[in-house]
């Protein structure tokens, strides 16, 4: 019994000494016990990674070293015979320089309004590639049961100036109105910033009169199948042409908007509005001749690509 009491007393004493040993060590070293409050700690001599952050900033700073030289070798030559790879590259470049034929009818439409029912068209056919093309383009309008008011046929060479704009050089033949005119044509067309399609032409006739035409359009896709396309066209005459009832200045303005169902790009029906007005001296000449100066029409048509 006495031996058991002595053993228990020894265990209690050892446990007490182990529990109090850290406190004693802290007291001897003068360190404050950990209470969760670090206000008593001295941070003045601590380095918070200044050198590491500085090294990182220096590494991220842009340098002024010259760019590496443009590689002149071909990685495939390391694994295949160089002569065979050269022939393959020449064949690939040759395939990229293609020539093809296309026919595109941008507008073929029926127009109805107060001035009577009429028609209008605009389209082109071309042969060539991305850089150079030969283009045949036609545009016109008229009223049913009457002679066409305007028939134009253009033939020109189109050359890409850059990825966005093309140069046009050629001729235009006006079959209507009478008398007929033949024009030398120089123009530019392309895609401007924000996806506006722009075009401009200067025309000099075989009689010496000078005209200009500007076009602008925008294609906005509403859904995967519905596309709305507003357009504007402005004609300018640089001098009076009495035989054509055209006065110097702004000659004619056309505005239109068409909603197209383009489930299949090869054949897409559309509906829309078309407004046309003669301007300036040309409008005064039309009024004197008893002709309408402006007209608004609802249009129903088809766009096709072949």
Question: What key attributes describe this structure?
Answer:
alpha+beta, 4 helices, 12-stranded antiparallel beta barrel, 306 residues, 21% helix
Shape: elongated
Compute the number of strand runs.
13
Oligomeric category: single chain
Q: How many DSSP H or I helices? A: 4
SSE order, as H and E? HHHEEEEEEEEEEEEHE
The pLDDT mean sits at 85
The first-to-last residue Cα distance is 115 Å
- Low-pLDDT runs: 4-9, 11-40
Helix content: 10-25%
Rounded to the nearest angstrom, the radius of gyration is 41 Å
Secondary structure layout:
Elements: H1 2-29, H2 50-60, H3 82-96, E1 100-113, E2 118-128, E3 132-143, E4 150-160, E5 165-176, E6 181-192, E7 196-205, E8 210-218, E9 220-221, E10 226-237, E11 249-261, E12 267-278, H4 280-288, E13 294-305
Antiparallel strand pairs: 1-2, 1-13, 2-3, 3-4, 4-5, 5-6, 6-7, 7-8, 8-10, 9-10, 10-11, 11-12, 12-13
Summarize the structure.
With 306 residues, this protein is of the alpha+beta class. It is built from 4 helices and 13 strands.
Description:
The protein is an alpha+beta fold and 306 residues long. 21% of the residues lie in helices and 46% in strands. The chain has a twelve-stranded antiparallel β-barrel. Strand 4 and strand 5 form a beta hairpin.
